[in-house]
Amino acid sequence: MSESPLLSIQDFSLEFNTFDGVYQAIADVNIDLAKGESLGIVGETGCGKSVTAKSILKLVPSPPGRVRAGRILFNGEDLVQASEERMRAIRGLDIAMIFQDPMTFLNPVFTVGNQLVDVIMAHQRFLPQRESRSRREARDYAIEMLRKVHLPNPETQFHNYPHQLSGGMRQRVLIAMALSGRPQILIADEPTTALDVTIQAQILDLIGELMKDLGLSVILITHDLGVVALLCNRVVVMYSGQVVEDASVKALFDNPAHPYTQGLLAAVPHPGRSSGVLSGIPGQLPNLLDPPKGCRFQARCSKAMAACGEMAPLKRIGKDQSVACWLYGEDGHA
Ligand code: SF4
User: Fold this and answer.
1) Which of 135, 227, 122 is nearest to 178 (CA)?
2) Cα separation of 145 and 26, whole Å?
3) Is the CB of 55 under 6 A from ligand 1?
4) CB 239 near ligand 1, within 6 Å
5) In this prediction, what percent of the chain has a pLDDT beyond 70?
6) Vertex 188, ends 184 and 191: CA angle to 5°?
7) Which atom of ligand 1 is nearest to the CA of 326?
8) 248 touches 38 (CB < 8 A)
9) Under a CB-based contact definition with an 8 Å cutoff, are residues 12 and 71 in contact?
């Protein structure tokens, strides 16, 4: 990556205080996002991908959450140190987020148009005077945004309540809301998981189209490698709160290096493959109240060795690929 990244998560660790002890949710995570890049963060439930994404926007409640170490630089500004007032200006106008279940994030007692206009008006106080809108102008802009996300009959839908829209339409409304502040980065946390397969494809197409049209950089949180292959140019694999592999999508699919990544890919169903049994990854995620010393994957790894008692650093093994595993030597070869 030649120019400095738009967003850079550096040596970031976050923990939660619980009644049972300190839960070490994220440990020493390093992730960069370049301008215009589409980055997938993948891993199984509990690997820390959503918490990492929420940490960017300071959406992890504190307490019980606590940043133990690290920085999150956006255009060089450390968001970990930013005040709540500063974060209010950044949320939506610089970095926006959409979530898994659109119904949860829409208020059932207000029309979608009302909610969209409220979001647009809430951005006003952070905009220069010349860019501010009246409520009437905000209404026109809201309908323009609904049209941009291909919501059918936007003028009519504007007056509808969330329960009158399908799941896919509600997700389009949330995308319109997220993009109404013209952010530079869109974080999409499992944006299609709650939708059926045909609608999933439409929403992914829409995100891809908006990325090109608006020059958006995207972080896509997903457990679905098929979604990553469709939409992303780079992918970070997380396991148990740590980054274990960072690669271009092509490098990762052609040559998955970390045993965990290999397990994830082997578990993806392939239509037409004759064998009816999918391989899984035996074992469970370690207890992060008392994580193992060294590689957190070692209890599930068939290639574990004595060296794995220490955590392997993320090592570059190719032009577009880095991996944290002792199977790879200083020269990057296994
Ligand atoms: Fe397996 Fe060791 Fe590599 Fe961890 S560091 S994935 S235990 S070989």
Assistant:
1) 122
2) 36
3) no
4) no
5) 94
6) 145
7) 5
8) no
9) yes
Mode of pairing for the β-strands spanning 7-18 and 77-78 = unpaired
- Segments in the chain forming alpha helices (H): 49-56, 84-90, 112-124, 135-148, 154-157, 167-179, 197-214, 225-231, 249-254, 259-266
Q: How close is the Cα of 330 to the center of ligand 1, in Å?
A: 15
- Determine the distance separating the centroid of ligand 1 and the alpha carbon of 121, expressed in angstroms: 51
pLDDT single digits (tens) 281-325: 888 888 999 988 899 999 999 999 999 999 999 999 998 999 999
CA of 9 to the centre of ligand 1 (A): 24
CA of 318 to the centre of ligand 1 (A): 18
Q: Which two tokens stand for residue 59?
A: 């959406």
* Residue 187 and residue 97 in contact, taking contact as beta carbons nearer than 8 Å: yes
Token duo for residue 222: 């997903």
For the record, the structure tokens of 113 come out as 């148009």
Query: Are the C-beta atoms of 27 and 14 separated by less than 8 Å?
Result: no
- Whole-number Å distance between alpha carbons of 271 and 274: 9
DSSP 253: H
Phi, psi (rounded to 5 degrees) for 165: -105, 155
Q: pLDDT for 219-241, tens place per residue?
A: 999 888 888 988 899 999 999 99
Whether omega before 63 lies within 30 degrees of 0, making that bond cis, reads yes
**How many angstroms is it from 254 CA to the middle of ligand 1?**
20
Does residue 257's CB lie within 6 angstroms of at least one atom of ligand 1?
no
Name residue 106's amino acid: L
For the chain, the farthest-separated pair of C-alpha atoms sits apart, in whole angstroms, at 67
304 lines ligand 1 (CB under 6 A): yes
Residue 333 has pLDDT above 70, yes or no: no
- Comparing C-alpha atoms, which of 215, 203, 193, 221 is closest to residue 53? 221
Model pLDDT for residues 124-150, shown as the tens digit of each residue: 877 776 677 888 889 999 999 998 888
